[in-house]
Every structure is written in C-alpha cells, then in structure tokens.
Task: inverse folding
C-alpha cells in the first residue's frame, strides 16, 4: 500500500504539481496531500484549511496547499535504511572560521547588553544523487519521534526534514505548544547532563512563550523541564497548554518566530541574523503542518435513557504545526542543509561549532554521503 501511494506521488512530481508527504511523531501512518493544479496559494489569516508552509521571515506570507486529494498508508515494517559514510565533514572546516566569528559577534552584543540570546545558523551544500523518496524513507526509519516530511511546489522548490519541535497543536479551542532549547549528542546507555548555558537558554524560551501568550489564552499550564531525544541528539523541552478564544492568527503571530530559532529581544536578534548570517534562511526555522483540519470522531453514548446505546459523531477542528528544523532543500543535484544553535553569554565558539557539526551528521547520514 505504501509503495502504491508513493508511486502516485512520484507521478505528481513528474507532472510538476504540488504535494506533501508526511508522518506525525510516533506514528506509523503516512499522510499525503495532492494539489491538482500548479497555483501558488498563500494564507491570509490562518483561517483557511490545508497544509501550511511558512518561512522564517514572519513578514512573508505562508504557502497554503489545499486538500484537493488526500491519501494515507501505513509504514511497512522491516525496511532499514542503508547509511553511508560522511566524508563531507572535512569540508565543513572551511566554514568553521566564519561561524565561530559569527558566534563571537553575537556573544559580544550579549555582553554589551544589546541582546540576551541570538540563534545563529549556517547552510551546507553537498552533492546529492539519492532520489527524494528514498531520502524520505530513510528519515522515516531514523526519526520515529519526529515530524518527517517531503514537500514540493514547482514555484517554490522541494524541502524535506525531520523536526522534533512543535510550534503549536490545537483541538477546537485547546492549545499545546513547547519550548525546546539546548542540544547534546546522545551516548547510548547514558542520560544527558545539562550545563548552565543550556538550562538558561531553555528557561528564557519558556518565559518568553508564556509571556507572549498570556493575553491571548486562559488556563495556561507550564509543565516541567524534561530531556527528549530526536535521532542522535538530546534536547530540553517544556510543554505549555492553554485554552484560546481568539482566532488562530493571533496565536501564531505571538509564537513565530520563537527565541529558540531567533533570539531575545526578537527585533534586534532578527536584525543581527539578517545582517550577519550571510545567507537567506528561506523556510528553515519557519513552520509547517496541518491547518484547521476538520474530522468526525465516532463515539458511543452511554446514556441510560438511550436504550439502543446509539453511536454518535462529533466534529473537531485541529491544527498541528511544527518548527522547520533538521531540514534540507533539494535542487539541481544538490542538497542544502541548515544547522544552527543558540548563543548566550556562556557560549564557547568551538562548542557552538561542534553543535552544528553534530546536527549536520544526522542529515548527512540519510543522504548516504
């Protein structure tokens, strides 16, 4: 069944028509949305229904893919990915000096009090001969707990990735979001030990999100900090739940971009990124996912007055949006990978460089380089 679904999506690609294939975290089901024309659509106020793909720049509109056709299939068990070696890592040394200098510039502004935190990133371009659907299946095999996707629009390009970070999840008027910060390479059999830099970074993100939402929601609850694993990396995470009454656009504007992908305060951090990163992030650190999807849920009535114990159906509206991390863009036989990290007053340039190297390894492996 999965093979048949992917074959249909491949036919869509040959026709140069838009589609998205994705798997939700800890799920064994593939979802497919096919657009039957090549029109480039955008959201106006996030009240639309479909799949949204938004850039890092919150002033640029998000692409909307309507639900012209939807397909589903279960992931077939027993197919393991074949990973190659990562000789490209030596070539990353060429970028090391620039990135470490970028970290130093950010840390200097933090020391001067202009910033509390800034997230700096870099791009890495490598040759890529693997078909996109093959790369996507390797992502599925390696990132069970992540949101994995392959997205294509002929007027935008092809992107795919595996992200561990939820921007928001809603069901009717109930909302869940998270703060995710801090990175550490996994060591089998060991639990992570976090330093003050990672703890402070995660706390700043949690406090910012809580404050940003306080005038938009009610019944907010901030959970405990926990360590979560995504592939070969550990992160610190705090879940936040609430109830909202206003439209979803206010919530999205309050959350995106978060300090986890930009910095604090947001305006000067964004300005620093735009002026110093030396490349255009495009959809890296943007967000993507299902928007206002409606579905009927079957339930059984246990009301004693209902002698037939009849089943009834309730209508729900849900959105699941994820921050576009651990992603790449495919074009002209090349894969452009994006990696970054948060800079605070305690950042050490060499350590920050090594963090980006660790993040790039996980994506390079699925490319079988």
Result:
């Amino acid at each position: 069944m999965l093979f048949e679904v992917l074959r249909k999506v491949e036919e869509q690609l040959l026709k140069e028509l838009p589609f998205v294939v994705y798997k939700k975290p800890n799920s064994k089901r593939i979802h497919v949305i096919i657009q039957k024309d090549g029109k480039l659509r955008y959201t106006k106020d996030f009240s639309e229904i479909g799949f949204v793909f938004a850039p890092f720049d919150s002033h640029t509109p998000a692409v909307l893919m309507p639900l012209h056709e939807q397909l589903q299939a279960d992931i077939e068990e027993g197919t393991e990915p074949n990973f190659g070696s990562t000789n490209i890592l030596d070539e990353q040394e060429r970028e090391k000096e620039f990135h470490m200098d970028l970290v130093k510039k950010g840390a200097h502004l933090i020391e001067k009090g202009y910033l509390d935190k800034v997230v700096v990133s870099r791009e890495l371009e490598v040759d890529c001969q693997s078909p996109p659907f093959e790369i996507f299946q390797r992502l599925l095999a390696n990132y069970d707990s992540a949101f994995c996707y392959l997205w294509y629009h002929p007027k935008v390009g092809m992107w795919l990735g595996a992200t561990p970070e939820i921007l928001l999840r809603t069901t009717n008027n109930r909302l869940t979001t998270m703060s995710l910060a801090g990175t550490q390479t996994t060591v089998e059999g060991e639990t992570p030990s976090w330093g003050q830099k990672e703890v402070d970074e995660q706390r700043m993100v949690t406090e910012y999100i809580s404050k940003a939402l306080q005038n938009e929601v009610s019944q907010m609850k901030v959970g405990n900090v926990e360590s979560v694993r995504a592939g070969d990396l550990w992160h610190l995470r705090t879940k936040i739940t609430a109830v909202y009454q206003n439209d979803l656009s206010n919530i999205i504007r309050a959350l995106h971009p978060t300090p986890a992908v930009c910095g604090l305060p947001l305006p000067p951090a964004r300005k620093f990124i735009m002026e110093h990163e030396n490349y255009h992030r495009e959809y890296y650190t943007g967000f993507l996912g299902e928007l206002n999807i409606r579905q009927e849920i079957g339930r059984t009535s246990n009301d004693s007055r209902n002698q037939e114990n009849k089943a009834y159906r309730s209508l729900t509206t849900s959105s699941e949006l994820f921050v576009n991390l651990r992603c790449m863009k495919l074009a002209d036989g090349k894969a452009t990978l994006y990696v970054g990290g948060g800079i605070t007053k305690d950042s050490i340039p060499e350590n920050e460089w090594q963090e980006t190297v660790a993040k790039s390894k996980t994506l390079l492996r699925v490319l079988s380089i």
